[in-house]
Amino acid sequence: MGQFSALVLLAVACAFFTEAEANPFVYNYERLRIGGLVFTCLLVIGGVTLLLWNRCKGGNEKDKDNSSNI
């Protein structure tokens, strides 16, 4: 059910943002630039998150030090 609602939401969003133009080869460069900036921001945030994942993950230091079990 969740996949179906996500598909419907995606279809509504695509229908909302599409515009019928007389000439299909005229591009809206402002929308393309904004979309590129949003995509780039998401990639940068994802990359920083992956780089800092182990530092932010935390964990118990006692579990990592097993030298006392020898």
UniProtKB/TrEMBL annotation:
One MF annotation (Gene Ontology) recorded for this entry: sodium channel regulator activity
Keywords from the UniProt entry: Ion transport, Membrane, Signal, Transmembrane, Transmembrane helix, Transport
PANTHER family (alphabetical): FXYD DOMAIN-CONTAINING ION TRANSPORT REGULATOR 5 (PTHR14132:SF14), SODIUM/POTASSIUM-TRANSPORTING ATPASE SUBUNIT GAMMA (PTHR14132)
Ion transport is among the record's keywords: yes
Example GO biological process: regulation of monoatomic ion transport
Main location: membrane
Keyword tRNA processing set for record: no
Membrane topology according to the record: Single-pass membrane protein
Subcellular location: Membrane
Entries under Pfam families matching the protein: ATP1G1_PLM_MAT8
Taxon lineage: Eukaryota, Metazoa, Chordata, Craniata, Vertebrata
Signal peptide: 1-22
PROSITE patterns given in the database record: FXYD
UniProt family annotation: Belongs to the FXYD family.
Transmembrane residue ranges: 32-53
Protein name: FXYD domain-containing ion transport regulator
InterPro entries referenced in this protein's UniProt entry, alphabetically: FXYD_motif (IPR047297), Ion-transport_regulator_FXYD (IPR000272)
Gene Ontology annotations for the cellular component aspect, listed alphabetically: membrane
